[in-house]
Structure formats: C-alpha cells, structure tokens
Amino acid sequence: MPEIKIAASDGSGEFMAYVAMPKTMPDTAPAGAVVMIQEIFGVNSAMRALSDWVAEMGFIAVSPDLFWRQEPGVQLDPDAGQAQWDRAFALMNGMNQDKAVEDLKASVAHACRMQGANGKVGTMGFCLGGRLAYMMATRSDADCNISYYGVGLDGLLGEAGKIRAPLLLHIAGRDKFVPPEAQAKIQEGLRGNKQVECHVYPWADHAFSRRGGHSYDARAATIADGRSAELLTRVLG
Predict the structure, then answer these.
(1) Rounded average pLDDT over 187-208
(2) pLDDT digits (tens, 9 = 90+) for 147-179
(3) Residue-range domain boundaries for the chain
(4) Which of 175, 205, 217, 225 is catalytic?
(5) Does the pLDDT value for residue 1 go beyond 70?
(6) Is the full-model pTM beyond 0.90?
(7) pLDDT per residue over 25-83, tens digit each?
(8) Superfamily assignment of 3-236 in CATH?
(9) Of residues 103, 205, 206, 225, which has the active-site annotation?
C-alpha cells in the first residue's frame, strides 16, 4: 500500500498520500497512526524515508501531498541546486495554508479509519510541515503533534491558547529561517503551557533531521527522534 487517495473535505477532489505500514501488521494489535507533514520539497524521498522510519517503530505513517492544489506529485531534491529551491519556495508561497490544514484534518480522519489502525493519530512535520504541525495543534483534534524546525511559529503564538493535546517542538539553534529573537519569542510565548514541550539544539542547523541532507546532524536527530518516539509511544500506544 505505497500510495492511497484521500478525499478533500471541501469536495474539490482527491490527493495522494504515501503510506508506510508496520511490517508486523495486521497480525498484531491495532497501531496508532502518524500523519507526516512535508517540507517545502513535497513528498520526496526524504519524506518517504522518514515515513518508513515511523513505520519501523510500529506506527502507520501517512504522508499527504499538500501541493496537490497547485501541482500534484511534486518531489524536489534540496541538494540538486538553486532551481529546486526556487521552485520549492514558489510552491510554498502559493500554498493556502488554511486549506492545507483542512487537507491534514482529512488525512487524520482517514488514518483513524484505516485497516489496522487503533483510532489514535498524531502529526509530525518538518520545516513548513513543522509550522503546519503547530497549526494542527491549535486547530485540530489530533492526539499529539510534533514540529521539527517549524518556520514562522512566532507569528502564530496568538493561537497558543487553543492547544489541547501534547505538542513537541524541536528548534535548531543555528536555524537561519528562525533567528534567535524568534526562537526566544516562541519559547517565552509557550512557557507555562503544560501541553507544550520545547527543545532547542544549539549546535544544529535547519533540516538537521533530513537523512542524507547537507545539514543532517546525527546527534541532534538522534536526541530529537528519541523524544518524538517516546511521545508517540506514550500517546498513540
């Protein structure tokens, strides 16, 4: 089941999602699901590898194509030159993020009903996806949400009071897209919210968890991924 189709809640069509299933399914107990939220490069090989990693932990991983309203099937390579980055930023700037959240909600609802699922669903997003994971924490009923180096979160702090489920933030200390003043604002704005756990990796750069990428940092990724795994296990079973 490498790819499935999910119906958009606004009736505008269907979008593709990459699916990775636990190897032990369906003979074992039902599994929790994780909606994996793409970077600005689409559901590319990096997102599929991350989804496979989540499946290896025993969860159902669903990674929806959030650029489908502009161009379906986008798979860009961030290490293949400036043209790929230019196209990625154009797609990000052209995205209606409110619609993207609705597509993610549809993905969560679909994941709840998948064969072998136990009805519990979290989200995990990276970069743009990290921003959308935060928005899912404030706008959806996902059981938990995980944001890796989410961009622009300091501009979303007005929604923080709507967070009702566990939210885990991984912040890269050397992230040029989230400067130190923004990082400080995020931490201060979320301080005291018992649902939020925020970790800063001072030595790491943006995209430190992208396997094989130029900014991959094994130490930061291992620590962050362990924290993510613990939360998913605790909340999703």
Answers:
(1) 97
(2) 999 999 999 999 999 999 999 999 999 999 999
(3) 3-236
(4) 175
(5) no
(6) yes
(7) 555 678 999 999 999 999 999 999 999 999 999 999 999 999 999 999 999 999 889 99
(8) Alpha/Beta hydrolase fold, catalytic domain (3.40.50.1820)
(9) 206
Mean pLDDT, all residues of the chain:
95
Query: Which token pair is 157?
Result: 């702090």
- Residue among 168, 90, 180 at smallest CA distance from 122: 168
170 is catalytic: no
Let me know if 110 is a catalytic residue.
no
